[in-house]
Design goal:
N-terminal domain of TfIIb, 4 helices, alpha+beta, globular, 199 residues, Pnp Oxidase, Chain A, three-stranded antiparallel beta sheet
């Protein structure tokens, strides 16, 4: 039997976070051991000024676009889920937004239709950036003023690509989006903050 262990040592220096990852693969009988070490540098761009969506994107990229989305339940509690998040231009306004694609029946959408407040958090190592704002839902069951519903498939592709996604068959991608009644959730930032230099 082969076991794999991942050990990560974060080192914070100024605003740069260095990840050194050692992967040790070992057979139970000890016959083979392999170690691979790698280093990557993740920096917050704001360097003393206010963090931005560019900082959010910078932390999402090395983590396959994965971020935590927090919405508000009816009882006031927080519901959290992990989604692929990207940053792109709003389809109707000259401003950048954080965005993700969600399945039409997702619990987070029920919450957002009732209460549009949302928080997205991205982290890489010990650095994190949080974006608080209001969600705008664009989808087959959520018409948006000034948005042509015929453009939904293009918007869903754009959000998917902004979150680091690729696809070999866009026609199949579009088919699944329609079947699942998927929507684009655009988050207009109201507050962006971070831990700047780590723990």
């Amino acid at each position: 039997m082969i076991t794999t262990r991942r050990i990560v040592w974060p080192v914070v220096a100024d605003l740069d976070l260095v990840h050194t990852t050692t992967v040790v693969t070992r057979c139970d009988h000890g016959a083979a051991t392999r170690a691979v070490a790698g280093t990557r540098r993740v920096s917050l761009l704001h360097s003393g000024s206010m963090p931005s969506l560019a900082d959010l994107q910078g932390l999402l990229e090395p983590e396959q676009g994965l971020g935590v989305v927090c919405t508000t339940r009816r009882d006031g509690g927080v519901q959290a889920s992990v989604v692929n998040v990207g940053v792109l231009r709003h389809p109707r306004r000259a401003e950048d937004v954080a965005a993700f694609v969600a399945r039409g029946g997702a619990v987070k959408l029920r919450h957002l239709r009732r209460d549009a407040r949302i928080t997205i958090v991205a982290r890489s190592g010990w650095l994190w950036v949080a974006v608080e704002g209001r969600a705008e839902i664009i989808g087959p069951d959520d018409a948006a003023s000034g948005f042509d519903p015929q453009e939904l498939s293009t918007l869903l592709r754009d959000v998917f690509r902004a979150a680091g996604g690729t696809h070999d068959d866009w026609a199949e991608y579009d088919r699944v989006m329609v079947e699942d009644r998927r929507v684009a959730v655009l988050v207009i930032p109201e507050r962006i903050y971070s831990n700047a230099s780590g723990p």
